[in-house]
Structure formats: structure tokens, C-alpha cells
Amino acid sequence: YLVVAADKGTATFSDTANAIARDHGFWLDDAFASGGSAGYDHKKMGITARGAFEAVKRHFREMDRDILVTPFTVVGVGDMSGDVFGNGMLLSKEIRLLAAFDHRDLFLDPDPDPAASFAERARLFALPRSSWADYDASKISAGGGVFSRAAKTIPLSAEVRALLGLAVDHATPTEVMRAILKAPVDLLWFGGIGTYVRATGETDAEVGDKANDALRITGPEIGAKVVGEGANLGMTQRARIEYGAAGGRCNSDAIDNSAGVNCSDVEVNIKIALAPAVASGRLDRPARDALLAAMTDEVAARVLANNHSQTLAISLAERLGLADLPFQRRMVATLERAGRLDRKVETLPDDAGFAAREKAGRPLTRSEIGVLLAYAKMSGKVDLLASDVPDDPLFAGELHAYFPDRLARDFADGIDGHRLRREIVATRLANILVDRGGPTFPTRVADRTGAGLPAIVRAFAATRAVFGLADLERGIDALDGRIAGSLQLDLYGRVRDLALTGTVWTLRNVGFRDGLTAVIDRFGGAVATLEPELPALLPPAMLAEIEGARATLLAAGVPADLADRLAPLDVVAEIPDIALVAERTAKPLAEVAVAHFAVADRLSIDRLETLVRSLAVADYYDGLALDRA
Questions:
Q1: Alpha carbon 382 to its chain's center
Q2: Are 50 and 84 in contact (CB under 8 A)?
Q3: Helix/strand number for the chain, H first, E second
Q4: Measured between alpha carbons, how far is 577 from 421 in angstroms, rounded to an integer?
């Protein structure tokens, strides 16, 4: 099958394609091309910009800045009539847009009033068509203005010279635009067409965007702390890598602006799910279209949740740094051998490059990790579709969870009979595994257990259910902007570590002959029984350590109920072992738990584990040896 994903800006094409599909009796009907007259209007939803802004918020959150309540400076490419730029510049009332340009004009506002400039941007966005020339000059701060790109030179006020670091009183539009791209601001927001940044070692000819050759800068010349790539190809991949290696914060366009394509996917699949109801007369076309519109906000929420989790996965992989490099290298090599990845096309290091990175202490950048994230998901989906995992009754809930609640409630039969149900389940399982475990999660687990992806996914699902990891993640999600960014990543990291150790333990110790549900009931019941009783079961020294960890979390702003669960997480991870011993000895869980923790305390096993974790891992095989120890 072929699905044409086109947003509302190309609705004419979408409607034409859908008409052809209907005329030929093609089963996709008007789900053939998304974004048509009966589809989601991406600009009205602001979905692409909102997705990119999720990435931007994460960058700043990890710098302990909440850009929804704290002013921040921005320069950008685009104008308020554009989808990504216009919507993006209305997503926070604290934006101080200092400068921008499009294909017609340059906008300069050296010291904007956040409230007044926000209102003026909103006015321009609401116009049927607008340009920077429509901006009310009285709302622009001293020294600023709107200037045509057709002008020979632009007069530069003292305020503009200070903003852009220019020492002359006149400059060409090209010189001013280059200075805008280099401006020392908080955020550089790409919302217009063109590639404006290349790597130092790239030529303009290699970039392939001749129209912007004259004003293009290099990655190290970017003065912004953060880049939001809401538009396609604002930077080359090599430029992103260079900027990231120099301390800049960026992902890539594929990560930042993925929400638009994601929204199209959901639209297409909703239409497929509703097709039987339309065909049977239960739902006429106008009613179906009204239902689509009524679910807009819920569709957007599901899409934006993906932006949140994808950028988190990149941050957690980035946090691992060099420790993840050997696994990244093995992952890339494995995918390449399978013919699923061309590392040269994707600008990933060859084996010598990985070795040089390791020797120089330079881990992969966010933009490179983003490539691994995508390939881990795509490869995972392929492997899962080739297995019986998508047909496992335990994962039936994943199919319904993909769709808005109203659809799942009122048209469950259409969802159950969805012609792409296996693909949807496989996609969701691959996404959850990679977003919550990290791109190298399958590689790490396979190296330790020899298991294939289907078994890994089942063990991962069992681990998440047994320990209630999804609830823990939701609790940590709710702390966005409420605790230090580094601490929040640390908490996510603890949950991710338990997902890894729990998955490995499950694969080594448990079979799935009786099904996943039996495994979850068996060990989840033990966790539910023992976790609340731990204070009465632990030796004093271990209990004191947990109480100290809880107090530290409380002092950092973590709510008490979440701190209660996170503080003893390492101890809770041992409960499945206790359950196995209880089964083999026919002793009560609590009695076995007391013996287990007493032995651990007497033999200083916790101290040994701490020492092992503190050892520097010289190479990949050292890491495996320490894991086995």
C-alpha cells in the first residue's frame, strides 16, 4: 500500500489523490492522503511547531529554565504568516523576538516588550496573509524596524549594532542576516525554507541550497544556546554535529518537526478504523468528519507525548556519554551488516571514527543519537512484524491506546478489525522499548542474554508491569519544571536502569511458556506484597540508607509518594529473586526476604556492587565481564 502524507498546506493535492483512490475503489478511500478537506489542519493545530517547541522546552528545562514563565531571547528564520514560525512564536508569552528574516524582509527589535510584541505577532498571524512589513512600527523598540531584503544597505542603529555585534553604521541585507544567525541569544528558531548552517568542512555546493549560499554560516558560528529546527533542513547534519560537539543544544529536523508527520499517521489510521462504520451506514461521512474534528485535541496530545518521550530518550542516551559508545558502535555495525543502515548516508562514524571518538573522549552528539533512535525503532518494528509478538493478547491494549479514547470506546470493532493493526502494535512496542530503554537497549540486552528482539520485548513488557515503571515515569513526567533538570534526568535514569536489569533478569530466569500474564502475576504479586513491608524487613543499615535517599529527594522537591517509591528502587529490584527462592523453598515471602537482605548485608554485597559500578570500563568486553560478575 501507499499512503500519501501531506499537511493542510497541500490540501489540493491530498483531495485530488483521495478522489483518485475513491474512483478506483481503493480500500484506503480518503485515508490514502492525509490533510485533505476532511483531514487535520496542521496550521490551525500548530502541531508541527508545538512538537518542535517540546524539544526546545526540554533543552531549556535541562538548563533549569522554564521558558513558559521566564523571558528568553530569540532570533529566527520565517515570518508570522508561516505555519511553523508563526505558531512557534506564539507558544510562549515570554518570547523576546529580537530579529528575524524571510524571503522578503528583515525584522529587528533590539529590546522588545514581551506582552506588546506577543500581541502584535498574534495580530499578524491572524491576518489572511501577512509579512514583516505589516508589523506596527510603533510596537518596535528604539533602533529597530522592518527592512526590505531588496535594499542595497540597511542603516544600523546603536541598539542593532550592539545586538548583532556589527561595528558599522550601514550593512547589506546579507551581512545583517548572517549576523542574525550568529547572534548570541537563547534560541535560534528555524521556521522557513532553506539551509542556513553548514559544517566548517563542508562547501556550499555540497549543501545544495544555492539561494542561501551568500548568507550561510558554519556550526561553530551559531551564537544561540539552543536551536529549534521546526523547518526542514535548517542545518546540515554535519553542522548539527559540529554545533553539538561545541556545546550547543540541538536535535535534528527529523526529531524536532516529527509531529506533523505523526499527526498525519494518526489521521490516516483513524479513517481506516472508521471505514467499516461508514460502509455499513452506522456513520455517514459528515458525522465521521465531525467526529474527526471533535478528537483534534486528543490527537494532538498523543502526538506531543511522542515528542516529549523521544527527546527524553535522546537526553538519557546523551547522559550516558562514553559509556554508551561501545554499544552504539555495535548497534550501528549490526544494522549495517543486516543491510538496514548506511552509516555514510546517515553521517555516522565508521569503526575507525568510533575508536577515535572513544580515544578522544567525544561521545555521539544529540543529532547523531537521534539517527540511532530512528533506526532502532524502524529495525525493531521489522523484527516484531516478523514474529508473533503483535498477536499476543497482552498487547491488544496497545492497539486501542494508539487511538483517541472516544474512538476506542465507540468504535472498538473498527479498531479490532483494523487492516494495519499488527503494524500499529509493532510500532508502538518498538517506540516504547526505544524511548524508555534507549536506542542501544536491544543491543545491551542481547549481548548479555543472547535473546532476540521478540523475547526482549516480552521481558521488557513484563518488567514494566511487575515494577509499575509506567506509573513511575508518569510521576517523573509531572515534575517538568518543578525540580532541577539534572535530578529529573537522574530519576528517569534510575527507572531506565531497572528496566534494563529487570529485562535481563527475566530473560535469564523466567520462561514465557504460560504467557506473559502469568509472569506478571507471579512476580508483580511478590512486589506488591513486599514493597510496602520493606521497612520491617530490612537490616538497620540498609533502611537508614533508603531513608537518607528519601530525605534527599524530598528536599529536592520530589513529592512524598514518588520519593517513597524511588528511594528503595534498588532494593525493590531484588524482590523477584526473593520470589524464586520462596517458590523453591516453600517458605513465606517475608521470611525469605529477611534472610535475603541479612545475607546481602553480612556479605557487603551492596558495597561490592557500588565498587564494581565505580570501576572505569576500558572496553566493551570489560563492561560485559563486570555485568556477569
A1: 21
A2: no
A3: 33, 10
A4: 36
In this model, does residue 586 exceed pLDDT 90?
Answer: yes
**CA-to-CA dists, residue 382 to 127, 272, 300, 365, 488, angstroms:** 46, 22, 26, 26, 33
Cell 494508539 appears where? 402
Q: Supply the DSSP symbol for 249.
A: B
Alpha-carbon span 520 to 341, nearest angstrom: 35
Model confidence band, residue 12 (pLDDT cutoffs 50, 70, 90):
low
The pTM assigned to this predicted structure is: 0.94
Q: What's the pLDDT tens digit per position in 327-371?
A: 999 999 999 999 999 999 999 999 999 999 999 999 999 999 999
Distance of CA 41 to the CA centre of its chain: 23
Place of cell 554545533: 243
The pLDDT confidence band at residue 4, using thresholds 50, 70 and 90, is: low
Dist. CA 32–CA 436, nearest whole Å: 32
465: left (phi over 0), alpha (psi -120 to 50) or beta: alpha
One-letter amino acid identity for 260?
Answer: G
CA-CA distances (angstroms) from residue 264 to 17, 48, 105, 438?
15, 11, 32, 25
296-320 vs 366-385: helix crossing angle, rounded to 10: 110
